[in-house]
């Protein structure tokens, strides 16, 4: 179990929406939130995907491949 925690603020230069993937009521893509505090959250996998996409768009960087493949 983690014993330390840190709040991190990420400033984006373009619009960002981390959706929860569920459709409830009139909002078809609610904002992803932390369960206990109801604070907006960003899953690590979403951040990783955004970074991977940005690097793949840069032609100077080869596409990332998992080890062993």
TrEMBL record:
Residues 10-67 form the CRISPR type III-associated protein domain. The keyword Transferase does not apply. Keywords: Antiviral defense. Coiled coil: none annotated. The keyword 4Fe-4S does not apply. Pfam families: RAMPs. InterPro entries: CRISPR-assoc_RAMP_Cmr4, RAMP_III_fam. GO terms for biological process: defense response to virus. This is Protein containing DUF324.
